[in-house]
Amino acid sequence: MNEEKFIKLKENFKLRNIEVQYFETLENVKSYILNIIPMECTIGIGHSATLQKVDITSSLLERGNIVYDKELAKNKEECKILKKKALTTDWYITGSNAISVDGRIVNVDHTGNRVAAIIFGPDKVIIVVGKNKIEDTVDEAIKRVKNIACPLNAKRAGFNPPCVTLNKCVDCVSKERVCNSLSIIEGQSDSDRIKLFIVNEECGF
Ligand code: SF4
Q1: So which domain of life are we looking at (predicted)?
Q2: Strand 181-185 with 105-109, pairing
Q3: From CA 26, how far away is CA 144, in angstroms rounded?
Q4: All domains of the chain, ordered by start, with CATH?
């Protein structure tokens, strides 16, 4: 990632009270996360292809943390319970659909569990983002989320809104719509809550 761009991004997030840290690889991020989260803490996981790539859930479970990750659910009901439990854990770890150099974090959600957790859930939130998800402005970040992240995430989850076929958003009202909630984090009051970890790798979509 371009160093000048990263410095600008870090400064802009700092102005909005959000700490940004840079990592060369996803494995580096994983080691760092395992190091800073105490073993007695509970952890909620927001669905993220980035985190799944390094299987952070298994590593946390293996060493004894209690982890609420909807991917562990055996059925719909269990999935809902895990999503709710993840809202009140000590830590929440997730990815993001896009961030902008001007200092915003942009996400869409189907049911809203992930954006709810990020906005006002666990006391500590870690958001891991690959370099492919960085846009210059908040408008470009929203464009990315709707036209790139949504179709790919919808397809992965087995939904079929128009963007899956068209590869672009047509602002649908389909029952298969996956972007029911759009959240833009513009800043935070507690500088120690949300931390943004940027990885110099292409991660997720
Ligand atoms: S509004 Fe519809 S078409 Fe647009 S990104 Fe969301 S699901 Fe896709």
Answers
A1: Bacteria
A2: antiparallel
A3: 22
A4: 3-100+110-133+185-199 (3.40.50)
Closest residue to atom 2 of ligand 1, CA basis: 172
Instruction: Among 153, 170, 181, say which to mutate for ligand 1: greatest number of ligand atoms within 8 Å of CB.
Output: 170
Q: Which atom of ligand 1 approaches the CA of 166 most closely?
A: 3
Cross-strand bridge partners of residue 43: 67, 91
Q: What is the mean pLDDT of residues 9-34?
A: 97
Nearest CA to ligand 1 atom 4: 169
| Residue ranges in the chain assigned as alpha helix (H) | 3-15, 26-36, 49-53, 56-62, 76-85, 113-120, 138-144, 150-157, 162-166
Question: Does 1 have pLDDT greater than 80?
Answer: no
Give me the residue label for tokens 């974090």.
105
CA of 145 to the centre of ligand 1 (A): 10
